[in-house]
Amino acid sequence: MVPHALSTFALPLLLLPLAAFSQSVSFKKDTGICETTPNVRQFSGYIDLDNQKNDTFFFWFFESRDEPDQKPLTLWLNGGPGCTSMIGLFEENGPCLVNDDKESTSLNPYSWTNHTNMLYIDQPFGAGFSAGRKVRTNKEAAKYLWHGLQTWFADDAFSKYANRDFILASESYGAHFGPVFTSYFKSQNKKIASGKVKGVPINISKLIIGNGKHDPMIQTNATITFAIDPPGYDPIVTNKTLIQETEDAFEKECAPALSKCNDGGSDSECNDAVKICTRRVQLPMWGNRDPNDLRITDDGNKTSEINDEDYDEQSAATHYLKFLRDNKHKVGAEGKSFDQCDSGVHARFSGSGDTGRSAINDLAEIVEAGEVDVMLWVGDADQKANWVGVHEVVSQMAWSGNHAFADAQMESLKLDDQEVGQYKVIDGPPGITFVRVYQAGHQMPQYQRKTAATVFARFINGADMGETDSSKVGKFRPSRNVASGAANSALPAGTNNLTAFVASFIVLLTFV
Ligand SMILES: *[C@@H]1O[C@H](CO)[C@@H](O)[C@H](O)[C@H]1NC(C)=O
Ligand SMILES: *[C@@H]1O[C@H](CO)[C@@H](O)[C@H](O)[C@H]1NC(C)=O
Ligand SMILES: *[C@@H]1O[C@H](CO)[C@@H](O)[C@H](O)[C@H]1NC(C)=O
Ligand SMILES: *[C@@H]1O[C@H](CO)[C@@H](O)[C@H](O)[C@H]1NC(C)=O
Ligand SMILES: *[C@@H]1O[C@H](CO)[C@@H](O)[C@H](O)[C@H]1NC(C)=O
Ligand SMILES: *[C@@H]1O[C@H](CO)[C@@H](O)[C@H](O)[C@H]1NC(C)=O
Ligand SMILES: *[C@@H]1O[C@H](CO)[C@@H](O)[C@H](O)[C@H]1NC(C)=O
After folding, report:
1. Largest Cα–Cα distance of the chain, in whole Å?
2. Ligand 7 atom 2: the closest Cα is on which residue?
3. Which of 115, 176, 214, 442 is catalytic?
4. Whole-angstrom Cα distance, residue 93 to residue 81?
5. Is the pLDDT of residue 299 over 80?
6. How confident is the model at residue 338 (pLDDT cuts 50, 70, 90)?
7. Which of 7, 382, 462 minimizes the C-alpha distance to 211?
């Protein structure tokens, strides 16, 4: 308790001197690493908040492959908390994929840079190649990231992006980062407007969260529903005794612990609640399947339900780690070690209770305010943040469209004449877009790159989700809501030893 109170209290004091120090951005440009499309620019390096590399964010920025001066700026953040955004860059939505040789790359035709300028930042400090003070909460992380972005926009190389539409995209634990950061940036914009704070406004126009972990109560409960009947797949758990035991454990142990946590409970009560719910409810209901992807059983074999070439691209999943370690100096990255997810960051956020506290009200406030277009999309083979639970979150959260949302029918999501998922759109404001993507696990774009890029383009361009004419979704239109006109789990798939597999849950279960 004492260190927490101290760090929260000390934060404003510590931030003040930052402005007095010169802050700077240092980078390598056009390295030819990853993005090899001719004439497409890239920059990677550090956003240094004190010019001494004490508090410093690693970033990698890619211009859009098409009309970069007309395109918005999208910030991608992986979750964890503590996971590197390089997961997104190399596995989900970036310009390249690492080949099986782990030494070369191929262009990703489904890179989101076909539609937007993309900025990847490792945050909070400690994640990926970023280093600095020990951040413990979502709110602290918001403040430092805001400073980082201010520093980045202040650099001549990037100032032109300050007045673009700003899109924030994250996943998994990003269900916390996304809404908390959006609210904080909004409050800073107000202070800038009234002269209390110096800086450029960061008007987030769109917020995208993939396979979000929004609310432990609703979503842990949904783990049971989903294990019994995961729509589109065979049941995960059929043992009626086990199901009954787990329902009892939810009602008698997990739910009360979460209630205590979310009813003003202490940090340790929240941390304990996460552990209880994971061990007593999630683990038994995940059965012998990969929590990231129910199609994978513990022997590492894909079930017969998998028959899709996109999935195999995942063989490159961890290849990027070697590639990135080998090339880190070329892209300006430093640091002795590089891990997908930093256990220290994760432990600090667990210790602060933030992983047990619900982010449902943070999301509801943003949706209800109606100034930011929100899309939640979910790969439907994920168990960690299953789509039934995310749908339930939107139906139950406190916003004026919740009944309309709950009652609306899912519509067919089409791509190349195939049904690749379903969606619901409640037109706003306040409104929301919800998308279920078939045959995709926790890090949805990694499994269905083409669908993800297509849905991303439809959403950011303000096109109808049912639009199948690509010529109608190609051009970016500023958000209707910006009046002025201006995110996982890093668990490797296919872990093929049940003991190691289960043990790894205990350590990593709340990652991403
Ligand atoms: C940065 O770290 C160094 C070494 O720990 C320390 O001497 C220095 O005061 C720090 N600078 C700031 C601005 O915190
Ligand atoms: C993305 O852009 C690249 C380079 O301009 C192009 O080759 C590729 O076909 C585009 N991808 C799609 C899906 O249109
Ligand atoms: C859990 O889900 C069941 C079935 O949907 C529901 O009846 C019950 O009220 C839920 N419990 C809590 C605490 O949300
Ligand atoms: C079903 O679950 C119960 C409770 O965990 C367990 O004791 C029993 O062995 C299981 N039955 C089978 C067939 O696995
Ligand atoms: C995976 O499944 C195939 C075909 O069913 C089988 O031949 C193979 O032995 C299995 N591999 C493992 C590791 O169980
Ligand atoms: C962002 O919002 C602020 C406050 O509403 C406004 O003054 C500013 O012009 C906006 N900037 C852009 C680039 O939209
Ligand atoms: C499975 O993993 C555990 C823990 O890493 C190890 O002790 C055990 O030997 C492994 N078993 C097999 C069959 O590989």
Report:
1. 64
2. 500
3. 442
4. 19
5. no
6. confident
7. 382
Task: Give bridge partners of residue 500 from the DSSP assignment.
Answer: none
Neighbour order of strands in the sheet with 73-77: 24-29, 42-48, 56-62, 117-121, 73-77, 166-171, 204-210, 373-379, 432-437, 418-426, 411-415
Q: Is residue 434 part of a domain?
A: yes
Q: Which residue has the tokens 């413990």?
A: 136
* Cβ–ligand 7 contact at 497 (below 6 Å): yes
Nearest-CA residue for ligand 5 atom 3 is: 301
In a domain, 172, yes or no: yes
pLDDT for the residue numbered 321:
87
Task: Indicate yes or no: pTM above 0.70.
Answer: yes
- The overall average pLDDT reported for the chain is 85
Q: Would you call 172 a catalytic residue per the annotation? A: yes
Compute CA distances 287 → 155, 226, 246, 441, whole Å.
50, 11, 12, 16
What is the span of the domain harbouring residue 48?
2-216+354-472
Asked if the structure places residue 292 within a domain, the reply is no
Q: How far apart, in Å, are the Cα atoms of 29 and each of 119, 449, 510?
A: 14, 27, 35
Q: How far is CA 484 from the centre of its chain?
A: 27
Structure-model confidence comparison of residues 248 and 509, the more confident one: 248
- Whether the pLDDT of residue 398 is over 80: the answer is yes
Tell me if 275 is assigned to some domain.
Answer: no
Two structure tokens written together for 284: 């038994």
pLDDT digits 0-9 by tens, 167-213: 999 999 999 999 999 999 999 999 999 999 999 999 999 999 999 99
Find out whether 345 and 135 touch, Cβ atoms under 8 Å.
Answer: yes
Spot the catalytic one: 7, 44, 172, 489: 172
User: For residue 243, what is the enclosing H or E element?
Assistant: helix 240-249
- Who contacts 355 (Cβ-Cβ below 8 Å, separation ≥6)? 81, 173, 270, 271, 274, 349, 510
Q: How many CB atoms are closer than 10 A to CB 358?
A: 22
Question: Mutate which of 299, 495, 498, 499 to test ligand 7's pocket (most atoms within 8 Å of Cβ)?
Answer: 499
Please provide residue 364's backbone torsions phi and psi, each rounded to the nearest 5 degrees. Answer: -60, -40
Supply the CATH number for residue 171's domain: 3.40.50.1820
Under the banding of pLDDT at 50, 70 and 90, the label for residue 50 is: confident
Catalytic (active site) residue 442: yes
485 pLDDT exceeds 60? no
Tell me, yes or no, if 339 is annotated catalytic.
no
Number of domains in the chain: 1
437 alpha carbon to ligand 7 midpoint, in Å? 34
